[in-house]
Amino acid sequence: MNKKIDFSQPLMVLAPLAGYTDLPFRSVVKKFGADVTISEMISSNALVYKSEKTRKMIEKSPSEDPYIVQIAGNKVELIRDAVEILNDIEGIDGIDLNCGCPAPKVFNHGSGSNLLGDLKKLEEILGTVKKYNKKQYTTAKVRIGVNEKTPVEIAKAVEACGVDYMAVHGRTRAGKYKAPVDYDAIKKMKEAVAIPVIANGDIKDYEKAKEVLKYTNADGVMIGRAAIGKPWIFYQLKHGIENITEDKKKEIILEHFDEVLKFHGDHGAIMFRKLLHSYSKGYKGAAEFRDIINRISEPKIMRDMIENFF
After folding, report:
1. 295 labelled ligand-binding
2. Does the keyword Flavoprotein apply (predicted)?
3. Which of 133, 164, 167, 238 could crosslink 141 through cysteines, CB 3.0-4.6 Å?
4. 195 and 165 housed in the same domain
5. Which of 239, 258, 274 is the C-terminal boundary of a domain?
6. Annotated active-site positions, please?
7. In Å, how far are 43, 45, 79, 161 from 128, measured between CA atoms?
8. In this structure, is residue 269 part of a structural domain?
9. What is the rounded CA–CA span in Å between residue 137 and residue 140?
10. What is the pLDDT of residues 109-160, one digit of tens each?
11. Does residue 167 share a domain with residue 66?
12. Where a domain ends, among 204, 239, 274?
């Protein structure tokens, strides 16, 4: 079988982010340089109990290839059923288990980063994904511990499940998104296992990505929050360029707007407001611009506003 993911060059991966990495956004970063895109985190529960909204979250853009769906869960039967549902959906190349989400509602449910505190449980759940998955890839996204750092134990447990690669967010669950990222821990994990390891956490620009790859010796970088409002980071990484023209930025913003309308219909204009808040950061007159677009719901007027502002 032809391998779709090539680790001969560092991989540039878009991290799954709830509420942001929907189909339109993924198709934009894919077009401008991301190697792999991943769905928003899907609850195995919602998938198995046939939530329509969840089904829509799995849809992918034709350009997304390879495309991975990320699931979360802590019950073997539900995870198995979720994997079997995904097996029947065309165009998915891999299934990723979320073992890192620090959100209380996910954690208290026993899913996400909760699994890091119970490696037996992690192996049971991840092993279930591996066992039933008929797609090309089984992967996992982890953090470096719950309260204490246990990076090497976690890496070995994940590797033992037979995954193809893992992505590591260099913080503990307790560190949420604020604590300094521990790139030493990522480096140790990379040294401890034979499978590829992708570094994640505070990789916010081209320079930082290069530095993290060199320091950790990781096989790629995963970028999440830094891509919101700056999806051209993938373009910079792909083309090895520090600077990006205002024209290129504008092209990417308009492309994103058009994709959102295509996927969500006219309501997409309203949804795009929060994204324009991110896009306009640092621009002169951004506050007035935000005030105006907060009152616009007509796609054509909003597109004109974007054209004129950026």
Report:
1. no
2. yes
3. 167
4. yes
5. 239
6. 101
7. 16, 15, 7, 9
8. yes
9. 10
10. 999 999 999 999 999 999 999 999 999 999 999 999 999 999 999 999 999 9
11. yes
12. 239
54: CATH? 3.20.20.70
Q: Residue 141, annotated ligand binder?
A: yes
Please provide the size of the chain in residues: 310
Query: pLDDT confidence of 1, banded at 50, 70, 90?
Result: low
Structure-token match 């707007």, residue found: 257
Q: Is 225 annotated as a binding residue?
A: yes
Question: Whole-angstrom Cα distance, residue 39 to residue 50?
Answer: 17
**307: how many CB neighbours lie within 10 A of its CB?**
12
Q: Could you report the per-residue pLDDT of 67-95, keeping only the tens digit for each?
A: 999 999 999 999 999 999 999 999 999 99
How many angstroms separate the CA atoms of 132 and 247, rounded? 47
**What average pLDDT does the chain have?**
95
Is 156 a member of any domain? yes
Distance CA 289, CA 306 (A): 9
Q: Which of 41, 44, 134 is nearest to 82 (CA)?
A: 44
Handedness of CA 15, 16, 20, 26 (dihedral sign): positive
Query: Is residue 169 part of an annotated ligand binding site?
Result: yes
Does 193 share its domain with 298? no
Write the pLDDT tens digit of every residue in 30-66.
999 999 999 999 999 999 998 888 999 999 999 999 9
**Residue whose C-alpha is closest to residue 203's, from 166, 251, 167:** 167
Asked whether residue 93 falls in the same domain as residue 201, the answer is yes
Number of structural domains the chain divides into: 2
Q: Are residues 71 and 185 in the same domain?
A: yes
User: What is the rounded CA–CA span in Å between residue 6 and residue 3?
Assistant: 7
Tokens representing 43 are 């609850």
Say if residue 127 carries a ligand binding annotation.
no
Instruction: Give yes or no for residue 242 having a pLDDT over 70.
Output: yes
H or E element, residue 104: helix 104-107
pLDDT-based confidence at residue 227 (cuts at 50, 70, 90) = very high
Question: Is residue 2 included in any domain, yes or no?
Answer: no
Domain span including residue 277: 246-309
The SS3 of residue 13 is strand
